Amino acid sequence: MNRVEGVIFDWAGTTVDFGCFAPVKVFIDIFKQAGIGVSMKEAREPMGMLKIDHIRAMLSMPRISTKWEEVYKRPFNEQDVKKLYAEFEPVLMSSLIEYTDPIPEVVETVQALRSQGLKIGSTTGYTQTMMDVVIPNALKKGYGPDFYMTPDGTDSFGRPYPYMIYRNMEALQLSASWKVVKVGDTTSDIKEAVNAGVWAVGVVIGSSEMGLSFDEFHALSKEDQEKVISQTEESFLQNGADFTIKSMSELPQLIERINHLISEGKRPNAK
């Protein structure tokens, strides 16, 4: 059958944790403790990567790298990365259970996709230890994929490498990359999808890329909501997304559209 066989979702900012706030505050706090002030924008930029890679990416940003040299009189090194990560992990673990609520429309959308015979996979920037908290607590609240893969299962090659997607395809017996849709809320998710050769979809409202909490987004005027939606969509498309959806309820209809494109011989990332 020339149609979509499976959908692979990201976790925080896509299916749970509206706005992807669990890790952001911790990144800001550990850098502050190290004497380096970082902005919310800087903390979010590498979002979706394996968390130790995320710290390395932040330290490599020109402004933060320069600031580090000013404070420590030397460039950062791998020992610094490991030290910051050692501070990051226990703080995140202590609060992670609070960030496992499914984002609105996710539970219903996944039920609708399953009713159409689609398999549900997932990838994440969280480690296995972190997912040991997220998975059972999200499941209690109604969301659980058929399979998930962390970078622990791919020798720590997380996004933008495509290997977590490939592990999902193998486990769920998805027959071709162009019959798979990846949905995520960061540019790292989009790059992962492009590298895997699957359909890349960015979800906008509730995303880390948008970076607003539920209350912050809904407090905006209609005009301002449309503005941040448009900016987020543009970021996804510039990074290679095939499509964007404002929220998860639009996904089943988009999959029908992708099925039509597949039947015409179209393939992902055909720019």
Summarize the structure.
This protein is of the alpha/beta class and 271 residues long. It has twelve helices and five strands. The model has no long low-confidence stretch (mean pLDDT 97).
3D structure, described in words:
The chain is an alpha/beta fold. It has twelve helices and five strands. It has helices at residues 22-33, 40-44, 51-60, 62-72, 78-95, 106-115, 128-140, 163-172, 187-196, 214-219, 222-238, 251-263; strands at 6-9, 119-122, 180-184, 199-203, 243-245. It has a five-stranded parallel beta sheet, with helices on both faces. Helix 1 (22-33) packs across helix 5 and helix 3 packs across helix 5. The longest helix has 18 residues, at 78-95. The protein is globular and about 60 Å long. The two termini are 24 Å apart.
List the helices and strands and how they pair.
Elements: E1 6-9, H1 22-33, H2 40-44, H3 51-60, H4 62-72, H5 78-95, H6 106-115, E2 119-122, H7 128-140, H8 163-172, E3 180-184, H9 187-196, E4 199-203, H10 214-219, H11 222-238, E5 243-245, H12 251-263
Parallel strand pairs: 1-2, 1-3, 3-4, 4-5
Helix pairs in contact: 1-5, 3-5
Kindly state the percentage of residues in helix. Answer: 40-55%
Mean pLDDT: 97
Spans of 5+ residues with little confidence (pLDDT < 50)?
none
Count of alpha/pi helices: 12
SSE order: EHHHHHHEHHEHEHHEH
Give a count of the beta strands, DSSP E runs of length 2 or more: 5
**Beta-strand content:** 5-15%
Between the first and last Cα atoms, what is the distance in angstroms? 24 Å
**What is the alpha-carbon Rg in Å?**
18 Å
Spatial arrangement of strands, main beta sheet: 2-1-3-4-5
- Which structural class do you get from the secondary structure elements? alpha/beta
The coarse overall form would be globular
Q: Could you give a short account of the major beta sheet?
A: 5 strands, parallel
